[in-house]
Backbone:
């Protein structure tokens, strides 16, 4: 076919190009491409919607015939099957056409212009609504909003982490730049995209290009009072709840959220759950020692810092605490203890769990050692209850930030045992949190700060006394600053491994 082909031949080729770009690709190279850009209802073989199946389909979507006609929604035939044709117009002229068949297959004219659907409806509009699909645009018109456009190519799967490309390279959003002269004078732009992740990503990408300060975010209503699921899009709202609900959603739009800035309304569900104690851990979980619970309880999502001079019982106390929590709550734990050999740490944990010494006790103690049967059951308990990390880290601040983020994200509690820096002038008293090497990082990042100290002076009190000194509590619901005093008996492997003497605040 030559450039001088007849109009009918060009018309036939245009239709072929629309329904099968791949099949026509070889032929198009020999055709005057400019001729194919001059789209009309005639050369695209479009006609007013009359097919009964299509009429019934639009009726089921609550779209009227008047709305279809005003928005240039037509029908065409593909492989002897009827398809919907959404005509994309600029200044009343068709510049592109998007098709949809009964199997939800979409395709567009290969040489059509990239513009939003409904572009002419936002000329000189002060408020503009942007939706994700043509049916949403039609739905909003049913609710009285004509100042609405739809993106032509759907939503991206996620927000790009890259910087915005230059306009000439921003091909995915070429339609938006081609419409800039239409929306740049608008004072408000409502982003009414779908409620799913892709729709949220589209809203963010649009806001990045338009300017967040000009955007308002539309939130669709819940599908029912008994679910938290939102309606997916404008058309679902129209179908489920009618035109008034659609109007209320638009009228209830809020300023597009600035990163890190929220209204309390966003957190109503979280506040309600907290008030009703739905998680059962909001007020903290018992440590297993009543006297200590008055000062310190364990809350998932927090970071507790534990320190003390060498041989003060930090690790023994932490191990006993983990065993208490495992027995009472069934919690599993991840252990990262470089100072403990695996077999030694296993011994300490098994002794606390089984309440017997791992080896034969010295000094004629009558308590028998762990039996072979106990050991097999204990190893299974270890495997089910603990995971091991065998690595080291260097950067305290970065590491603590990641650890705390991990705790919050996974709703778990983290205990971090940190040794104090060398105490050259130590007189035997308990160290403070400020004696930890890199203390500023630890103190600032932790939610709770505990010093474990053992009395070494017989004149100051019982030598077996262990002091649990609570020095920082961020969440005052779960604890207070104060001291608890516990007693340590290595071979009394019971839930009272540490006995309360008294607590003071």
Residues:
């Amino acid at each position: 076919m030559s450039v001088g082909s007849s109009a009918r031949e060009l018309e036939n080729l245009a239709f072929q190009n629309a329904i099968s770009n791949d099949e026509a690709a070889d032929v198009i190279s020999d055709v005057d491409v400019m001729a194919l850009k001059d789209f009309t209802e005639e050369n695209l073989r479009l006609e007013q919607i009359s097919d009964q199946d299509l009429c019934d389909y639009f009726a089921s979507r609550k779209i009227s015939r008047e709305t279809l006609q005003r928005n240039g929604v037509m029908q065409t035939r593909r492989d002897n099957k009827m398809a919907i044709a959404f005509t994309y117009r600029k200044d009343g002229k068709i510049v592109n056409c998007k098709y949809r068949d009964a199997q939800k297959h979409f395709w567009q004219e290969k040489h059509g212009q990239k513009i939003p659907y409904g572009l002419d409806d936002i000329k000189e509009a002060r408020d503009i609504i942007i939706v994700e699909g043509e049916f949403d645009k039609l739905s909003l018109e049913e609710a009285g909003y004509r100042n609405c456009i739809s993106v032509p190519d759907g939503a991206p799967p996620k927000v790009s982490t890259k910087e915005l490309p230059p306009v000439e390279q921003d091909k995915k959003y070429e339609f938006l730049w081609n419409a800039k002269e239409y929306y740049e004078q608008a004072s408000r732009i409502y982003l009414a995209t779908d409620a799913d992740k892709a729709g949220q990503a589209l809203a963010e990408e649009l806001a990045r290009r338009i300017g967040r300060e000009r955007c308002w975010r539309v939130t669709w209503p819940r599908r029912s009072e008994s679910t938290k699921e939102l309606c997916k899009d404008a058309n679902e709202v129209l179908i489920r709840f009618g035109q008034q609900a659609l109007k209320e959603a638009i009228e209830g739009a809020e300023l597009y959220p600035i990163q890190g800035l929220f209204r309390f309304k966003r957190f109503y569900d979280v506040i309600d759950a907290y008030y009703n104690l739905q998680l059962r851990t909001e007020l903290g979980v018992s440590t297993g020692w009543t006297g200590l619970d008055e000062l310190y309880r364990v809350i998932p999502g927090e970071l507790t810092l534990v320190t003390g001079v060498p041989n003060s019982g930090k690790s023994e106390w932490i191990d006993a605490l983990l065993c208490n929590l495992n027995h009472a709550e069934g919690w599993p734990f991840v252990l990262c203890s470089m100072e403990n050999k695996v077999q030694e740490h296993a011994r300490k944990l098994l002794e606390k769990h089984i309440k017997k010494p791992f080896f034969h006790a010295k000094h004629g103690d009558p308590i028998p050692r762990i039996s072979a049967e106990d050991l097999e059951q204990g190893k299974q308990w270890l495997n089910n209850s603990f995971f091991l990390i065998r690595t080291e880290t260097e950067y305290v601040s970065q590491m603590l930030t990641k650890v705390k983020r991990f705790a919050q994200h996974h709703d778990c509690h983290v205990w971090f045992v940190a040794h104090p820096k060398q105490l050259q002038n130590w007189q035997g008293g308990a160290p403070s949190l400020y004696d930890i090497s890199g203390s500023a990082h630890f103190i600032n990042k932790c939610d709770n700060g505990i010093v474990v100290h053992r009395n070494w002076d017989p004149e100051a009190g019982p030598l077996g006394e262990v002091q649990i000194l609570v020095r920082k509590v961020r969440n005052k619901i779960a604890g207070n600053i104060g001291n608890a005093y516990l007693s340590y008996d290595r071979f009394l492997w019971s839930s009272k491994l540490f006995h309360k003497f008294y607590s003071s605040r």
